[in-house]
Write a structure and sequence with these properties.
Order of helices and strands: HEHEHEHEHHEHEEHHEEHH
CATH class: Alpha Beta
Number of strands: 9
Distance between the termini: 25 Å
Radius of gyration: 19 Å
Number of domains: 1
Helix content: 25-40%
Strand content: 15-25%
Bound molecules: iron/sulfur cluster
Largest sheet: 7 strands, parallel
Number of helices: 11
Length: 314
């Protein structure tokens, strides 16, 4: 499947969906009322220092409403912009496998029947909250409805991981990917560029490591410093140098050059509620960011995976 073109020198999710489903596909973020084991003490307390109190699901539905109500509300909002399409039921906020198996089964089974046009169930979680019985069940569910797991990693570097209180290591992440792929479950990885004290080389090493794993997609986010987060307080108290737009474009373009050619890029920017954003201000202009990335790749005549391919052939 060739998803690249003159405009976009990398595999965009938009092109992937169009080729796969021949229609627009909407992701509908549902809130199953989960907590996070990195906040509630199961694994650690305090959470990842960049995480907002909404559990990194700032645009999901209202957890107090039934899934059907959340789904219909978001669906009708989507249809104000686009007339028709398919849907992805997306459990986004917090850690969406952090519950007993019976509760997970009830929620997921309900979610996939919310609408006949749902084509995928997407579940955001941590690598340390995927016990064997959950993976076994997801593997079975995957034979009835495609399942995609969005797995938070953020960085491969333990020193950064400790600093931001991720509370799991890389071996745990690698093992989760391996066990999910044994059940043929699609894996999409989240990483963040611009974490404190990470160099360009460290961010590229994260991509090179991901190339060695059987992953199908990636979301590359820029660091947002948000109000009411530990990192936001740390920054206000003792500011450090943040990435500029130029830095972000430079690093991300090089990461795309290294990223394996078959991996689908789901995102190159992030979303943060504007009222809660402390910095960097340029992150508000998502279209500028992607335009600059596209422009630079065209100017360099660089395509996704070029560096990786060259190194493999050397
Ligand atoms: S694992 Fe996710 S939900 Fe939990 S604290 Fe970290 S970013 Fe927030």
């Amino acid at each position: 499947m060739n998803l690249m073109n003159h405009e976009k020198h990398y595999n965009t999710l938009h092109n992937y969906y169009l080729q796969t489903y021949q229609k627009k596909v909407f992701k509908i973020a549902l809130n199953g009322g989960f907590t996070c084991p990195n906040i509630d003490g199961t694994v650690a307390t305090g959470g990842c220092t960049f995480c907002s109190y909404m559990g990194s699901g700032d645009f999901a539905g209202n957890k107090l409403e039934p899934l059907k109500v959340q789904f219909e509300k978001i669906k009708s909002m989507m249809h104000q912009k686009w007339e028709e399409g398919y849907y992805i039921a997306y459990f986004q906020a917090n850690t969406n496998t952090h519950a007993p198996l019976e509760r997970l089964k009830a929620l997921y089974e309900e979610a996939i029947t919310l609408d006949p046009h749902i084509v995928l169930l997407s579940i955001g979680t941590r690598p340390d909250v995927l016990p064997d019985d959950v993976i076994e069940y997801l593997g079975e569910l995957n034979t009835r409805m495609p399942v995609q797991i969005e797995l938070g990693l953020q960085t491969i570097h333990q020193v950064t991981s400790d600093l931001i209180n991720r509370a799991h290591d890389l071996a745990c992440f690698d093992d989760a990917v391996k066990r999910l792929r044994q059940k043929k479950i699609e894996v999409v990885v989240h990483i963040i560029n611009g974490l404190p004290f990470e160099t360009k080389q460290m961010m590229i090493e994260t991509i090179k490591h991901l190339n060695t794993l059987d992953i199908q997609g990636i979301k590359i986010h820029m660091l947002h410093l948000m109000e009411k987060t530990k990192m936001g307080y740390q920054y206000k108290k003792n500011p450090w140098k943040l990435m500029t737009l130029e830095d972000y474009v430079d690093v991300t373009v090089e990461q795309i050059g290294w990223l394996r050619k078959d991996i689908i890029i789901h995102r190159l920017t992030g979303d943060a509620p504007q009222a809660m954003l402390i910095a960097p201000d340029w992150t508000k202009k998502k279209f500028v960011v992607t335009n600059e990335i596209d422009k630079k790749m065209r100017h360099m005549n660089l395509w996704q995976g070029d560096y990786d391919e060259k190194e493999r052939l050397a």
